[in-house]
Amino acid sequence: MINLYKDEDKALVAVDCIIFGFDNENLKILLIKRDFEPERGKWSLMGGFLKKSETLDEAADRVLRHLTGLNNVYLEQLRGYSKVDRDPVERTLSLAYYALINISDHTEINEEYSAKWFNIDEAPSLIFDHQEMVRYAISRLRYRAQTKPIGFELLPQKFTMKQLQSLYEAILGEKLDKRNFINKINGLDILLKLDEKDMNSSRKGSYLYTFDELKYRAKVSDGFTFKL
Amino acid sequence: MINLYKDEDKALVAVDCIIFGFDNENLKILLIKRDFEPERGKWSLMGGFLKKSETLDEAADRVLRHLTGLNNVYLEQLRGYSKVDRDPVERTLSLAYYALINISDHTEINEEYSAKWFNIDEAPSLIFDHQEMVRYAISRLRYRAQTKPIGFELLPQKFTMKQLQSLYEAILGEKLDKRNFINKINGLDILLKLDEKDMNSSRKGSYLYTFDELKYRAKVSDGFTFKL
DNA sequence: TCAAAAGTGTTGACCCTACACCCATGG
DNA sequence: CCATGGGTGTAGGGTCAACACTTTTGA
């Protein structure tokens, strides 16, 4: 077959990851300090180039694994960024992804990148159009967290109601009413209340819960839709 | 500056457009019949390759203008598709866009492409991953139509309440109650009721409306959010 | 016994849905 | 005068937001 495409322009394709974490108080993003040109020394999203043999999802996965050592992380593609001179070295298209990771997992951040967690409202300014990507990621996360039970990706497997509420407050950027929040969550009926208590935060101790994914899936296939 | 990127793989980048239209009854998409390889004779989305000198949005715009002759069309990027062998000729990344066009505009469909309008539920099967793109586009359109006043892009500038309701019914894929719909739309207070009537559909005639974009913008900057 | 966080229900306001009849007109 | 689509309002149910006190226990 003759190649009809041979006269078309090609481009470098990158993926850039907005990596969200939660420390029981603030929503954070993981940034790296570039020790290579261009923009050496500036803060940046973690990224990498798409290889011929992999999909975008696989590239994002690889990039993330390289930085955090984590597998099976929640990753969602956001959109493509394509300003012609967004990267001064060469025309590079970038596909932004966001990832949700549980900071308390034994995450071994690769020291090669001088990575650091920042509160989303205290992050330094970023290279290229990365700032714009972060803004978009936050808005997508806000939406998604209200329509899919993805919040649990950011929490340890066992968590308290307080932690869950703090997480949603951090994502949504607003305080929520404790009783209303708990009533709503309980109404969804997708959590499992354990017999175990977390004794770290109070003398009384607070019950631990887990997300019951099987029950959630069963309910979904029965017409249920998560709605916070 | 030395080029640090020179060993990285490059890829062809395409844009593919899901072009929506509305004929006062059904939501439609515009497909082209390929008269070139690969997949000659099959139905496909309209697409084209990204050039070095343009952004993705500009490429989508160009592709759309080439097919329909239209400028200033509502276009929104959806996401990238990247299966390694999605195009059998060469590794090609595609960014899907959807467009909303008003069929009654003097649209001159370029005959070079043997394009044809199909009801969204009666479209033929498409090449590559275009089917998947269409599904995603419909779901994004459904969401967007409930949170942004984009429906008007699919209607003539002057329209009746009946047309607007039929449009939303077509987008959402469900029948709506006439009085509730009208109450809700009037509650938004972003339409201008004209003195003019459309006499084509009934003896009594029905009032024409236009979308009052200025009022809408003013309300938005005053904290209002469109919600159907 | 006291400090500190956990846990627990109710009420009023508002919004959404269901629903049916009269109007205006051209033929 | 009649057939056809256009236009209009209300009542009941459900959902959401506001709100405060009691419990537990380690120090």
Automatic annotation (TrEMBL), chains A, B:
Top-rank taxon: Bacteria
Record domain Nudix hydrolase: where: 10-141
Signal peptide extent: none
Segments forming a coiled coil: none
UniProt cross-references to InterPro entries, sorted A to Z: NUDIX_hydrolase-like_dom_sf, NUDIX_hydrolase_dom, WH-like_DNA-bd_sf, WH_DNA-bd_sf, WHD_NrtR
Protein name, UniProt field: DNA mismatch repair protein MutT
Pfam name, any one: WHD_NrtR
